[in-house]
């Protein structure tokens, strides 16, 4: 396929990975990010084996490992820290390589931005897309400042509340799952060298190392309303939610005092079952599928989407054929993660923790197969 002019809407994990993969194939790529600056602070995430495998295919696995923290297993514990179940996902990179990597979101963003720019992509901040008009063999984006950009392909990775998804006529909306997730970063205790969860009477909590010095703490909360009270003391509320934890985690909990470093988000889910494209616009990442956090696989799906889309564009003679092949390759895999994570959320609601871990084990095994 001849080189295309491509606009990537959204400068998150999906968009920046797509910018790198597509630029390396010779396409002319511009990333349009609506925010006015890149993230400087934030919590972390887990790059699972499938994410690392996809990053290796574009040469970015080692860069992510270097700024993150290698993890080989998940320990599921009670609130005292006593391990009752261990998840050991299959290693997909080979002997001596990590099974997973905990990484800070700002650090991952820096790696992906540098790779995209080195590959030749243009990154534009403060570019809010307000409409997308399909014109057969091209599409025109209109920005909020009136700028018009006509391109051969629009790749929309603009998140769970995707404006692009609505703009191209896909009406599916994310569902609220009755849960909120809280996150903050802390100094990593030397004893924390893997993803560790703590199952309590009311909800689950956990800690994930994201560098030699840092970790992020999370907890879930059953809530009736997806909106949050703007006047609450987030740090105090998070300490209360973590109050059942004992030992070293209790000391970490008591050190959470800065509400500006605490993030509370409603847990949403969506899987777009109809084709993820309309004309010359295609959805990737959370715009097409968003999962609850239990499977720690949202980033993996986004990265796999980006790499798979570039692969299909490189292998097919037409854009339409590539988009259709991309969708068919990705739908079942995305559905597996979304459904497994929702099953885990329901099991957690009912304190069926053993079943929750079994669901995760089965899904990880299935995801070990090539994307």
UniProtKB/TrEMBL annotation:
FAD-binding domain sequence ranges: 5-340
Pfam annotation, one family: FAD_binding_3
Record key words, sorted: Monooxygenase, Oxidoreductase
InterPro entries, alphabetized: FAD-bd, FAD-dep_Monooxygenase_BioMet, FAD/NAD-bd_sf
Single Gene Ontology MF annotation: FAD binding
PANTHER family: MONOOXYGENASE, PUTATIVE (AFU_ORTHOLOGUE AFUA_6G14510)-RELATED
Protein name: FAD-dependent oxidoreductase
Origin species: Humibacter ginsenosidimutans
């Amino acid at each position: 396929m001849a080189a295309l002019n491509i606009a990537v809407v959204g400068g998150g994990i999906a968009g920046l990975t797509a910018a790198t993969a597509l630029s390396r194939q010779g396409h002319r790529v511009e990333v349009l990010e609506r925010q006015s600056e890149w993230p400087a602070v934030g919590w972390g995430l887990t790059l699972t084996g499938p994410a690392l495998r996809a990053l290796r295919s574009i040469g970015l696995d080692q860069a992510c490992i270097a700024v993150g923290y290698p993890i080989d297993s998940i320990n599921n514990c009670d609130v005292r820290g006593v391990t009752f179940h261990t998840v050991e996902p299959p290693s997909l990179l080979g002997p001596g390589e990590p099974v997973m990597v905990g990484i800070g979101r700002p650090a991952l963003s820096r790696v992906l931005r540098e790779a995209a720019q080195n590959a030749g992509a243009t990154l534009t901040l403060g570019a809010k897309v307000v409409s997308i008009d399909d014109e057969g063999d091209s599409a025109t984006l209109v920005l909020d400042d009136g700028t018009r950009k006509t391109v051969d392909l629009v790749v929309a990775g603009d998140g769970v509340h995707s404006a692009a998804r609505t703009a191209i006529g896909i009406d599916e909306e994310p569902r609220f799952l009755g849960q909120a997730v809280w996150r903050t970063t802390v100094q990593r205790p030397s004893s924390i060298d893997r993803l560790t969860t703590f199952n309590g009477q009311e909800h689950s909590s956990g800690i994930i190392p994201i560098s030699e010095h840092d970790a992020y703490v999370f907890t879930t909360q059953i809530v009736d309303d997806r909106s949050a009270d703007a006047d609450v003391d987030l740090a105090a509320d998070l300490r209360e939610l973590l109050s059942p934890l004992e030992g070293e985690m209790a000391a970490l909990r008591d050190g959470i005092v800065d509400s500006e470093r605490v993030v509370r988000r409603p847990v949403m889910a969506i899987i777009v079952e109809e084709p993820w494209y309309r004309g010359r616009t295609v959805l990737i990442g959370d715009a097409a599928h968003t999962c609850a956090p239990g499977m720690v696989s949202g980033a993996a799906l986004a990265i796999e989407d980006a790499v798979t889309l570039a692969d299909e564009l490189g292998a097919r003679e037409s854009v339409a054929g590539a988009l259709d092949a991309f969708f068919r390759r990705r739908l079942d895999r995305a559905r597996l993660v979304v459904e497994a994570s929702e099953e885990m959320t329901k099991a957690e609601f009912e304190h069926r923790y053993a079943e929750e871990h079994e669901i995760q084990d089965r899904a990880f095994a299935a995801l070990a197969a090539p994307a």
